[in-house]
Amino acid sequence: CVLVSSLDGFIRLLDKDSGELLADYKGHKNSDYKIDSALAYNDAYVVSGSEDGRLCFWELVEGKLVHAFAAHSSVICSLSMHPRQHALLTASIDGAVRLWLPAGGGGDDDD
């Protein structure tokens, strides 16, 4: 599968081989900037930045926006999930780069 963010405000999940649309996700602002999106390390959630500085999480299968919060004061243009832990880096045009870990610290599965 591949995630595609587009300037119409949708993120689309496509089958890599056939190009078939598997799901789409909306609820974030994306009309002027290239915004990164990614699958959470466990593939249960889609994560994306937003032009209003929010970080947004959708359930992969249901497509429901389950969590969004103000993470930066401006556009979140880049993000990267750790491949095996609950850890996320975000970068914004506000000049900040932030590391996000689950409440209680550490990003290990045992936390």
Describe this structure in words.
The protein is an all-beta fold and 111 residues long. It is 0% helix and 43% strand. The chain is built from no helices and ten strands. The protein has strands at 2-5, 11-14, 21-25, 37-39, 45-49, 54-59, 65-70, 76-81, 88-92, 97-100. The strands form three sheets. It has a four-stranded antiparallel beta sheet, with no helix packed on it. Strands 1-2-3 form a three-stranded antiparallel beta sheet, with no helix packed on it. It has a three-stranded antiparallel beta sheet with strand order 8-9-10, with no helix packed on it. A hairpin with a 6-residue loop joins strand 8 (76-81) and strand 9 (88-92).
Key terms for this structure?
single chain; 111 residues; mainly beta; 4-stranded antiparallel sheet; 3-stranded antiparallel sheet; globular
Task: Summarize, please.
This protein is mainly β. Helices cover 0% and strands 43% of the residues.
N-to-C series of helices and strands = EEEEEEEEEE
Helix content bin: under 10%
Main sheet specs: 4 strands, antiparallel
Q: For the largest beta sheet, what order do the strands appear in spatially?
A: 4-5-6-7
Explain the layout of strands and helices.
Blueprint: E1 2-5, E2 11-14, E3 21-25, E4 37-39, E5 45-49, E6 54-59, E7 65-70, E8 76-81, E9 88-92, E10 97-100
Antiparallel strand pairs: 1-2, 2-3, 4-5, 5-6, 6-7, 8-9, 9-10
